[in-house]
Amino acid sequence: MADRDGVIWLDGEMVPWRDAKTHVLTHTLHYGLGCFEGVRAYNTANGPAIFRLQDHTDRLFRSAHILNLTMPFSKDELNDAQCAAVRENNLDEAYLRPMVFLGSEGMGLRADNLKVHVMVAAWSWPSYMSPEAKERGIKVRTSSYTRHHVNITMCKAKANGNYINSMLALNEAISGGAEEALLLDNEGYVAEGSGENIFMVRDGVLHTPELTSCLEGITRATIIDFAKDLGLEVKERRITRDEIYVAEEAFFTGTAAEVLPIRELDGRAIGAGKRGPVTEKLQTMYFDAVQGKLPEHGDWLTLVK
Ligand code: PMP
């Protein structure tokens, strides 16, 4: 990914993609304390637009605050940087990666007197899963890895190091023949996927785990808003894995994964074993919203030009 044309926003200026480098003694590389965002821009009738930009920037700042990182830029500067990263790479649709990390001025866990760096990259990343998965749904396995406990790593922060747990779980799921992992919290209740929140439909009601050990997903919040628009009841509560086995429908949500139906969990078909009608409705609303086709949610889009 490093050897390509384009530009990356690094510490306040655009630098050529190939020159956006950091030293091997970069602190975050050693201990994982940093935070990032995953953001998407979609092509709309008015040109490329970033979906829920302010919400992502707000979460990045919350993550930095939780990790005690002092942001050297303002939220407006970060919003502008993200628009510029899409615009100056001539992208119609893009995945954006803002990241906050500690420099190489010193080593050790005290992590004092280190410079806080910020970067924003944008590139074309059309589909996280296979395009058919959005329709057919995916096979999921409950992970042998437990999701972070709220008092071990900070679940409200989208922290770099938190993703070791996600990658171990995803790799285990894939090597076992599934496409994604379902992680349970330390008490055995459903938390989230490796990079997605989870919803299920039971008796026509939408259920999703409460925000304890799962990330405060922006797609999750979007789906909850759509449910309100549709008059669909939403319950945020503790969920067991066998409730998902017997759910009518289940799906993952995330900026990268978008709205992704789950057709099977641990070898058991969910509902009819394919995308269900509620999932399809919410998925359609999501794709309409990100492309600017839902005027009532037009304020979620920021044009990059
Ligand atoms: N959980 C985890 C662990 C994630 O990495 C993500 C992706 N950011 C999500 C949930 C979904 O969050 P969002 O909808 O804001 O992308």
From TrEMBL:
Pathway note: Amino-acid biosynthesis; L-valine biosynthesis; L-valine from pyruvate: step 4/4; Amino-acid biosynthesis; L-isoleucine biosynthesis; L-isoleucine from 2-oxobutanoate: step 4/4; Amino-acid biosynthesis; L-leucine biosynthesis; L-leucine from 3-methyl-2-oxobutanoate: step 4/4
InterPro entries in alphabetical order: Aminotrans_IV (IPR001544), Aminotrans_IV_CS (IPR018300), Aminotransferase-like (IPR036038), B_amino_transI (IPR005785), BCAT-like_C (IPR043132), BCAT-like_N (IPR043131), BCAT_family (IPR033939), Class-IV_PLP-Dep_Aminotrnsfr (IPR050571)
Cofactors that this protein relies on: pyridoxal 5'-phosphate
Keywords: Amino-acid biosynthesis, Aminotransferase, Branched-chain amino acid biosynthesis, Pyridoxal phosphate, Transferase
Reactions performed catalytically: L-valine + 2-oxoglutarate = 3-methyl-2-oxobutanoate + L-glutamate; L-leucine + 2-oxoglutarate = 4-methyl-2-oxopentanoate + L-glutamate; L-isoleucine + 2-oxoglutarate = (S)-3-methyl-2-oxopentanoate + L-glutamate
One GO-annotated biological process of the protein: L-leucine biosynthetic process
CDD domains: BCAT_beta_family
Gene Ontology cellular component terms for the protein in this record: cytosol
EC code: 2.6.1.42
Keyword NADP recorded: no
Function of the protein: Acts on leucine, isoleucine and valine.
Family from the record: Belongs to the class-IV pyridoxal-phosphate-dependent aminotransferase family.
Protein name per its UniProtKB record: Branched-chain-amino-acid aminotransferase
Organism placement in taxonomy: Bacteria, Pseudomonadati, Pseudomonadota, Gammaproteobacteria, Pseudomonadales
Protein's gene: ilvE
